[in-house]
Specification:
By secondary structure, the protein is an alpha+beta fold. The chain is built from 13 helices and 35 strands. It starts with 10 loop residues before the first helix and ends with a strand.
Length: 668
């Protein structure tokens, strides 16, 4: 009798011998089956699951089966055997299957074990297949070892079409293993590099700490010594500036603060203390404007003591005669005083190079003082050398000054030079290639020397022999002349145009000259085949050379740089470069008193440097008007300072620009 609460099932379900079997896996889907005989509890039937193929992944049964696999063991055929119905199995697998049930496992056809025969063709195909798989796996392993190859290169070299699922799974496993190895190595390298970096950083910071401790100790030591030092031993600039005796100090201040010096029309009278504080405030401001460079100067001056600072005892000198070495400290104090001493350039007088008020071509090419600094000569493109008396110009109440004498030339003048022994002896060089010696008192020519083939840029007198003078020209020659004969007595062949020549102040035959080859050549005329030194460092033509001392040379170039050279060192190295002015194509003048350096600029300004500071201390801007009838203009493009000279033994500079305006300036 059929259960009314159940649905009928097909007859095949009742006759299936496996309908009452127990479940073999929990992952199979149960199927409810009812009996035909009366109401009874439903029995559960489970589908037989397929074996898990490919590392336990489901749904891969059909993908794993191939023509080389046995349908019974799902493995590669071993000793392939074929049935009468045409199906191929492993020999052992088909025999065991027929012992259980004498039918073909594939199609169910009745079969007997004695009818099974070997399938040699299948064996050959299996052997070939296994060989291919082995080669593919070897290729995968080899490609996995190529650390330097990119993934695209590996895939290109690999026969991807021959890879099956097993090969790909193996490749993924190999790559994952390689990734883990590389990640571990990367972490090791990262840790190693981090340790090395931190170790090196610790060494650097410890070294900096030690250096700073030494510097602090040295500064404290110097501070203690300066604080305890007697005032009458403190040097600044040119001599003693402070005194321990309070009366003498007050007297000096009182003398400098007399009423005649500080009183005037509409002028507020300041006390001595106010003047002193005002002066110190201005100097303090100038000191702080160059503070970073002053730190370097101080450390350089104290570097000898800095290496052995721990051995120095920062104590006050005792009564037994022991004293502190103040030489380096005094030298730095002198530098500090020199840098902060001047605050401006004060115009003392103004002159005009051209007498023609309507002439625009008034470039002044050279200005020079005579040996006593009483007269100065001005020369340029107007073919005239004008001589002025300094005291007369300064003492005049008007700015229209007439020259004491004029020397008429046949060509534009490039340079003038006074003899260091004969007061009225003046030399000049011109654009026609001539060197002329003049008697300034009579305005007459003494000698005219025309051996140069091109324009002569420079002429200079020897300081050791009053008869000798030298010239440099665009014909790449430096010639040594004498007042005794009209022919040169020696010639130095340069490799480029010679732009400037200067004699060494302590030697009659040694000269330095700058060339268009960007170099400064240092020669002895007695051994003219080889230079004593060649100074390199400029990037363009060297336009001026001046001796700051017997062992130091200052050079100017159209690379907008001044350089200070030490001729005494074996390497003749550049001590310092000075930048701040503009000089790219014109000769802008150069002058020095040994400590301060003055040069022109192509922005119509004069710049002042100190030998220990690479940046300008002061600058002075020229007015922009072509002649006396013009009004000053705002735009000064194309105008430049063309000549500079320093008055010996004084803070006075004479400078001229391309408009023919000459300024006598004083450092204040």
């Amino acid at each position: 009798m059929m259960n009314t609460n159940s649905q009928p099932t097909s007859s095949s379900s009742d006759t299936n011998p496996g309908s009452a079997s127990t479940p073999t896996t929990t992952t199979s889907t149960p199927i409810t089956v009812y009996t035909r005989c009366g109401p009874s509890a439903p029995r559960i039937r489970y589908k037989r699951p397929h074996a898990l193929i490919c590392n336990g992944k489901t749904e891969t049964w059909g993908k794993a089966m191939s023509e080389y696999n046995c349908p019974i063991c799902i493995g590669v055929l071993k000793e392939a055997a074929i049935t009468r119905c045409g199906h191929t199995f492993c020999l052992e697998c088909i025999k065991r299957s027929l012992d259980v049930k004498p039918i073909c496992p594939q199609c169910g056809t009745a079969e007997q074990a004695e009818n099974i025969v070997p399938n040699y063709v299948a064996d050959q195909l299996v052997i070939k297949y296994l060989s291919t798989q082995k080669n593919a796996k070897t290729d995968i392993l080899e490609m996995a070892k190529l650390n330097d190859s990119s993934p695209s290169e590996i895939l290109q070299n690999m026969n991807v079409n021959k890879l099956n699922l097993n090969n790909i799974e193996n490749l993924i496993m190999i790559l994952q293993r390689k990734r883990d190895v590389l990640s571990a190595e990367s972490r090791v390298h990262e840790r190693t590099l981090l340790l090395e970096f931190l170790g090196e950083l610790l060494k650097v910071k410890k070294a900096e700490k030690d250096r700073l401790e030494k510097e602090v100790h040295l500064i404290e030591q110097d501070l203690t010594q300066v604080t305890s030092r007697p005032y009458n031993a403190v040097k600044g600039g040119g001599g003693n500036v402070l005194h321990n005796d309070s009366e003498s100090g007050d007297e000096g201040i009182a003398m400098s603060c007399s009423s005649s010096d500080i009183e005037g029309f509409n002028t507020q009278v300041l006390s001595c203390e106010e003047l002193k504080e005002k002066s110190m405030s201005a100097r303090r401001k100038r000191m702080h404007s160059h503070f970073d460079e002053l730190i370097n100067i101080y450390m350089d001056s104290r570097k000898v003591d800095l290496h052995d600072v721990r051995s120095n005892d920062a104590t006050v000198p005792n009564d037994s005669g022991e004293s502190f070495d103040y030489e380096d400290l005094d030298r730095f104090g002198s530098t500090l005083s020199s840098i902060s001493r001047y605050s401006a350039l004060k115009p003392l007088a103004t002159l005009s190079y051209s007498a023609d008020l309507l002439t625009n071509n008034n470039i002044v090419s050279s200005i020079e003082f005579d040996k006593d600094s009483e007269f100065f000569a001005i020369a340029g493109v107007t073919k005239k050398i004008k001589l002025f008396e300094y005291a007369t110009v300064i003492g005049s109440a008007v700015d229209i000054h007439c020259p004491n004498a004029e020397l008429l030339c046949n060509a534009k003048i490039s340079c003038v030079a006074w003899s260091g022994y004969y007061k009225n002896r003046l030399g000049s060089s011109d654009y026609d290639g001539c060197v002329t010696i003049w008697d300034a008192s009579t305005t007459q020519k003494i000698q005219t020397l025309a051996e140069h083939e091109k324009r002569v840029w420079s002429v200079d007198w020897s300081n050791g022999d009053p008869r000798l003078f030298a010239s440099g020209s665009d014909d790449s020659k430096v010639k040594l002349w004498t007042t005794i004969t009209n022919q040169s007595v020696a010639t130095i062949e340069a490799k480029a145009n010679v732009c400037c020549v200067k004699f060494c102040p302590q030697n009659s035959f040694i000269v330095a000259f700058g060339c268009a080859d960007h170099c400064i050549h240092y020669y002895d005329f007695r051994h003219a085949r080889q230079p004593l030194a060649t100074l390199t460092g400029h990037k363009k033509a060297v336009s001026y050379v001046k001796f700051a001392s017997k062992d130091e040379l200052v050079s100017a170039s159209t690379d907008s740089n001044l350089k200070l050279w030490n001729l005494q060192s074996a390497s003749t190295e550049c001590v310092r470069s000075f930048t701040g002015h503009i000089n790219e194509k014109n000769f802008v003048g150069l002058g020095t008193d040994g400590n301060y350096i003055a040069c022109g600029s192509e922005n119509n300004s004069l710049y002042i440097y100190y030998r220990d500071i690479s940046r300008p201390l002061l600058h002075f801007k020229f007015d922009n008007h072509r002649n006396m009838l013009d009004k000053p203009k705002v735009d000064d493009a194309g105008e430049f300072v063309s000549a500079v000279v320093w008055k010996k033994g004084s803070p006075v500079i004479v400078a001229a620009n391309s408009q023919g305006s000459i300024k006598i300036l004083e450092l204040t």
